[in-house]
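Dear colleague,

Thank you for sharing your sequence with our group. We've completed the structure prediction you requested, and as agreed, I am returning the results in plain text so they can be pasted directly into your records. Please verify that the sequence below matches your submission; if there's any discrepancy, let me know and we will rerun it promptly.
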Amino acid sequence: MLMIVEVVSAMLFTPFLIRMLGQSQYAVYQLTSQISAYLMLLDLGIGNAVIRYMAKFRADNDKNKQEEFLGIATVFYLIIAVITVIIGIVLVVIFPSAFAKGLTLEEIELSQKMLSVTMLTCAVTLGTSSFATTLMAYERFSFSKGMAIIFSVLKVGVSFIALLMGIKALGVVIIYFVLTLLTRIAYVFYVLFKLKIKPKFKNPDISFIKETVTYSAFVFLQMIATQINSMTDTILLGILAKNASAIIAIYGVGSQIIQYFKTIGGHFNGVLMAGVVRMVENGAKVKDLQNEMVRIGRIILMMLGMIFVVFIAFGKHFMILWAGNAYEQSYYVAIAIMLPTMFTLVQSIGSQILWAMNRHKGQAIIQIISALINIVLTAVLISWKPLEGAVIGSVIALTVGDVLCMNVMFKKEIGIKLGEYYYGLLKGVLPSLLICFVGGKLFSLIGLEKYGWLGLVVNCVVMIVIYGICMLVFGMNKSEKALAFGLLNKLLRKTNLVKDKGV
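Please find the predicted C-alpha cells below.
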C-alpha cells in the first residue's frame, strides 16, 4: 500500500511541480535535494546496525541489551544531527563559489535558502533515526508504513495547495521540513510508550560499541557508493557544465523515474532485514540462502521487468505527456540507467544476507572503488557531452560495480552458484517479458498514441495483460501463483467484491 501511495502520488504531483516551478526553479530544487541527500550519509551505516542488533536482541528476548543499544544509538544520532547542521552551514557558505559556472546569481541565492531548510530536515531525520530503525527491527510495519502513507499524502496535498497559492520551491521544502518533524516525533513516542523501550545512557558496553562501529563502517562505505552513483551526476553537471539548469532539469526528470523504480524495488529491503537476520542466526544453509535469493529476486524481477519493458515501448510518449516536450530526452536517461538499476534491486537480498552474516567488507570496498571511478569517468565525459556523459558514466559504474562485481561477492562470501541462481531467477520470467514487449509493439501499430493519455493507457494495459497471461501459463511456479491469487483475493475482499466464507 505504501509503495502504491508513494509512487502514484509522486507521479501525479511531479508534472504539476515541474510546470508550477518552471525549468530553472525545478533544476534548483533537484540540485539542493541531491546535495542534502549526501548529508544523510552521516548515518554512517548505524541504521543497518540498529536493525541487525535490535532484531538479534529481540530474538534473544534480551530487553536490557535492546535499551542499552538504543541509548548508544540515540546519543550517536544526536551528535550526528549537530554535525549535520554545521556541515550544512558550511555548504551554504561555499555554494556560490562552487556553482558559479553552472547557475545564475538568482538561482544561487534560492539554492542557499533551500539548502538551509533541507539541512534542518536531514538533521531531524538523522537525530531520530534510532527510533525509526527500532520500529523496523520490531517489524512494526503497520505503524511505520501507516505514518509514511500519511506523510506522503500530506506532503503532496499541502504542497499542491501551496503551489496554487503562489508559493514556490522554497515553500515546498519548508512544508517537507514541518511534516518530517511531526512524523519523527510520532516515531519517538511509539517506541517509548507503545513498545516501552527506553534508551539507557549509563555504563555503555565499550566492546560492543567497537563491534557496532566495525560492522557499520563497511555499510557506510556502501551507502557512500550508492549515493555517489545515484546523485553525483546532478552535482557534477551543476559544477562543470555551462548554463546547467536546463540539463539538470532534463536529467532530474529522468532520474525521478529511476527513483520511482527504486521505490518499488526497494520496498522489500526494509521489511526483509529482520527476517534475514533470523535465517542467519538460525544457521541457514547455503542452499536455503540461495533459494531465498531466488524466491525474493523473482518477485522483484516480475514487477520491475514488466515496468521496464512497458517503459521501453511507450516511455517516450509518457514523458512527453507527463513532463512536456522539453523533457523528451529524459526518456533516454531513464532507460539507460533503469536496466542496471533493475538488477541491483533484484539481487538486493544478497546484500541483506551479507550484512546479516557480517561479511560485507569486500562488497563495500568494491562498491566504493567503483563509485570513485564513476566520479572521474563522469567528470571527463561531461566535458565531452554533458547529458550523455553523465548517463554513460553512471551506467558503466552501476553495471560493473553493483552488478558484475556483486555477483562475484555473492559467490565468494555466501557460496551461491551463479548459474543455478540466474536460471532460477529468469526461468519463465524472461520469455514472458520478451513476448510482452513484442506483443505490445505489434499492438502499437494500430496508432493509438494520437489519443494522448487514453491511447497510452490502452497500450500499456494490453502489454500488462499479455504479460500476465504468459506468467500464469508458464512464467510462475505453484507457490508464486498461490501468492498472486492470495493477494488478489485479499484485495477483492477489502473492496467487498468477494465475501468471506461463512458470511
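Summary note from our side: The chain is about 85% helix and 0% strand.

Kind regards,
the structure core
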